[in-house]
């Protein structure tokens, strides 16, 4: 349940509008376009982004957002006037900074732990489970992720695992049928062993390369996932408050946010401009 002393902050965050009225391409539509989402889903992510920011402000321990929420955070950071002045300074009265991971397995385990605790804190504060189509389980949150910005006008996007798994039975079937056919046609001839051996090697290469690709992505995800947020109260020097968090004179909260897809691993931004 939302603490009584934080209701005013929560109401201010809820009333904050990211979409500027009477513009043809508002924040929510840009967020939808850049992530391939429907506009309705984008609006839901924005609501969860506001909840994440609220949790950052009141949590005594680091908070990590889902990847979807992190995308809203990344985009909001590019609206510098809206984020730093209207939102952080005037609404939150705290400056929340977005910091990328330093990399390595230690950082990966740290943010995985933060995320699991964040899901529990969300349920405690909002008295409901986080929506799983936005706040995904931590195993999926820090799974196989290697983001890169692409222009879909110039590239076709095919999901690797889905595509390969769909054609793998076909490849195996062709291999078996081909071997049987060659055995019948060339039984007793050395050509059978040569051709079937070549086919077998090709299939093995395809399977090995796919497995190797997945392994490499897993390792890169572990090393490069995770980034943090620090916040400072308006005015005054800031002191450290636990892992990945700072606090100003007004409190001892730390907050640590986002996962893979941050700057340093996929070109997200940290308070950057246009």
TrEMBL record:
Protein name listed in UniProt: TIGR04222 domain-containing membrane protein
Taxonomic lineage from the root: Bacteria, Pseudomonadati, Bacteroidota, Cytophagia, Cytophagales
Regions that span the bilayer: 163-184, 190-208
UniProtKB keywords: Membrane, Transmembrane, Transmembrane helix
């Amino acid at each position: 349940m939302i603490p009584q002393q934080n209701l005013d902050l929560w109401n201010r965050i809820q009333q904050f509008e990211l979409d500027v009225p009477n513009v043809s391409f508002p924040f929510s539509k840009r967020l939808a376009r850049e992530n391939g989402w429907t506009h309705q889903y984008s609006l839901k992510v924005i609501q969860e982004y506001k909840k994440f920011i609220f949790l950052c402000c009141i949590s005594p321990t680091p908070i990590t957002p889902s990847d979807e929420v992190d995308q809203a955070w990344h985009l909001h950071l590019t609206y510098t006037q809206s984020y730093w002045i209207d939102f952080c300074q005037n609404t939150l009265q705290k400056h929340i900074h977005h910091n990328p991971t330093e990399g390595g397995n230690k950082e990966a385990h740290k943010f995985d732990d933060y995320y699991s605790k964040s899901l529990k804190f969300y349920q405690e504060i909002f008295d409901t489970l986080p929506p799983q189509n936005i706040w995904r389980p931590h195993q999926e949150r820090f799974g196989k992720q290697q983001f890169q910005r692409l222009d879909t006008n110039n590239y076709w996007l095919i999901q690797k695992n889905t595509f390969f798994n769909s054609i793998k039975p076909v490849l195996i079937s062709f291999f078996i049928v081909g071997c049987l056919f060659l055995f019948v046609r060339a039984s007793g001839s050395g050509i059978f062993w040569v051709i079937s051996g070549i086919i077998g090697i090709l299939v093995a290469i395809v399977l090995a390369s796919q497995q190797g690709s997945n392994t490499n992505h897993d390792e890169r995800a572990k090393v490069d996932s995770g980034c943090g947020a620090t916040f400072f109260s308006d005015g005054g020097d800031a002191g450290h408050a636990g892992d990945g968090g700072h606090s100003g004179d007004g409190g001892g909260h730390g907050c640590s946010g986002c996962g893979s897809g941050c700057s340093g691993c996929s070109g997200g931004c940290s308070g950057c401009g246009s």
